[in-house]
Specification:
elongated, 64% helix, 3 strands, mainly alpha, 6 helices
């Protein structure tokens, strides 16, 4: 694992990604940088609406903005996505089928009962 995100950083990230428009923006930015205007046109959003979404994504550290002339361009911060990937990988060792996990837990409880009894 590369880094351990703070609970506040995870909350901000998951909150930012809870909105469909922002997830679609992240998907588009994963392909290439976009100007804010072009991204608004692609998403069929007004400039005020896209700016609100951009602020949320920037606050969560998911995107970065760079000004070229009078145009603001956005790009995905790949490191922020890696932090999410690292966090979900923590659970990989626990993943299996739900039935398998539940069966293992029931077996664990049975062993505990036998030890106590």
């Amino acid at each position: 694992m590369n880094s351990i995100p703070t609970p506040q950083a995870l909350d901000a990230t998951f909150s930012a990604l809870a909105n469909e428009h922002r997830r679609q923006m992240i998907h588009a930015l994963a392909q290439q940088p976009w100007s804010i205007g072009a991204l608004a046109d692609q998403r069929n959003l007004s400039l005020p609406a896209i700016h609100k979404h951009v602020k949320v994504l920037e606050a969560a550290g998911l995107i970065e903005r760079k000004k070229h002339g009078r145009t603001n361009f956005l790009a995905l911060r790949r490191g922020a996505i890696t932090v999410l990937q690292d966090w979900t990988e923590e659970f990989h060792t626990y993943w299996g089928s739900d039935e398998e996990s539940l069966s293992n837990y029931v077996e664990f409880l049975d062993r505990q009962k036998r030890k106590e009894g």
